[in-house]
Amino acid sequence: MDITPGTRASDAERNAIVAQLGTHLADGRLDLAEYDQRVAKVYETTTRDQLAVVLSDLPPLKPQQDPATPARKPGKRIPVWQRIEAGSWAGVSVIVVVIWGLISLTAGELTYFWPMWVIGPWGAVLLFRVITGWEATPGTQTHLRQMQKHMNHLDPHGKHLGPRDPH
Fold first, then answer.
1. Is 36 exposed, middle or buried (0-12, 13-18, 19+ CB in 10 A)?
2. Which pLDDT value is given to residue 65?
3. What H or E segment, with its residue span, contains residue 102?
4. b/e for 142-154, b at 16 or more Cβ within 10 A?
5. pTM for the whole thing?
6. Which residue among 62, 92, 130, 160 is buried most deeply as judged by most CB within 10 Å?
7. How confident is residue 1, by pLDDT bands cut at 50, 70 and 90?
8. Positive or negative, the Cα torsion across 26, 70, 144, 136?
9. If 0-12 CB within 10 Å is exposed, 13-18 middle and 19+ buried, where does residue 20 land?
10. Are 126 and 92 in contact (CB under 8 A)?
11. Gyration radius from the chain CA atoms
12. CA–CA gap between residue 18 and residue 58 (Å, rounded)
């Protein structure tokens, strides 16, 4: 039995380290392969000292960068990519309603309101994703679960992709 000195790390501490690695990946300090290797190493560790080694060559995050304490701006709860998608939805909605209006004007009467089949389902999906947080902000628990599910999908048998560090 291998007995290692040091305090044992909790799952919350491992998740916090993975969130920090995600921030370093987003900032360009890590490439995707190195990020994957470090995340695998984080989940293999047992002590806090081993966790510290994973981040030892990376600069400490500033408080506004620390994913454990996200700095939220008031009124900006919806992530930027969802605001972009909502803008696209609104733009397409206006276009199809204008097309329907021109068709109705040309026909001289109100025709079947077919734009509801474009506007409705797309809007419902966007609303569902905003409410449930389907696409989570990096560093949140939902994002970490999605990343773990993605990694399990890439490596369903628990074998690591690429070279492994024997230590």
1. buried
2. 52
3. helix 80-107
4. ebbeebeeebeee
5. 0.40
6. 130
7. very low
8. negative
9. buried
10. no
11. 23
12. 13
